[in-house]
Model the fold of this input.
Amino acid sequence: MNAPDRYERFVVPEGVAKVSYERDTKIINAASFTIEREDHTIGNILRMQLHRDENVLFAGYKLPHPLKYKIIVRIHTTSQSSPMQAYNQAINDLDKELDHLKNAFECSARRQLILILFSS
Done:
């Protein structure tokens, strides 16, 4: 078939940056971030995290084409912040949130394992 190899969905080619930044020349405090080898999963969670920031006026993403494995995240902020600051803050907040979720899951799994072991 003409379908690309499966690994192309996940492996960033050599010489290509995972994230690239492009400032908008027409709108102040607006920019686009192209994130390679990601899809709706990351796009939607990042968009929702950006919406929690009071300095973000607009946050959205698009998947340019189903066979091009990248998303484009667009951010427009107030003058109190920049798109780069909002993006970095959203990534850091998501990292903390996912770390908390992982720890809660592991703790619950340990409790369940102890209950199973002692109930036998």
